[in-house]
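Q: My labmate handed me this sequence with no annotations at all. I'd like to see what the chain might look like in three dimensions before we decide whether it's worth expressing. Could you predict it?
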Amino acid sequence: MTGLRIHHLLVSAGNREILRIEQAAFATGRIHAVVGPSGAGKSTLLRAINLLERPVTGHLYFWEHELSLAAHSAAQALAIQRQMVLVAQQPVMFQATVFDNVALGLRYRKIDKQTIAAKVTRALERVELASIAKQQATTLSGGEAQRVALARAIVLEPRLLLLDEPTASLDPYNVTIIEQVIRSLNREQGTTVIMVTHNLAQARRLADACLFLHKGQLVEMSDADTFFRSPRSAELQDFLSGRMIC
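A: Here is what I predict for the chain of 246 residues:
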């Protein structure tokens, strides 16, 4: 079942076209990896889906919601944004404890304290950081901060989890934990995941489907096995082979 669809998406800055996608569909309950060279528009795609980017044109079908990406109200956006979370490559930690950082979104939603305590504890256990719940988040290492950011996202139980290079520059230990959380969240809760990554091995390990962006265009999209075994375009063939593409 297709949960998320994008039609006629165009993002530009001045006279420069940054991203153009005529159509893309993301199946419910699957992990989608978005790959491509730097500057291809991968992060812009996540921001457009998360309604943080106002494109020139575009239409978003988010399960039961339908939205004009170029002309929507704040109230229309909020109804969709509350069902998804974006984890950035370089997460911001607030001047508070690890527990309070993870609890923040639940408090904004007026959840009762007992429920918050249970949900936050469970989220921190998932990322293996329950033992440092009382530590100041600004003192964490890069890997720990990224895991707290992931816990802060999954505690909200989003329908759609957007990940922008979630393991970039992290050591293998932190990479393993984050990948385990992504897998378990997807399998146990059916969370749909769209993940930007430069790590092709990671895309192979995690993804059910893959998208290849190049020069702001969606060049190829298919199930992961076909994507890696039988790439159709010359650009994707070169990219997967490690050859420079232009």
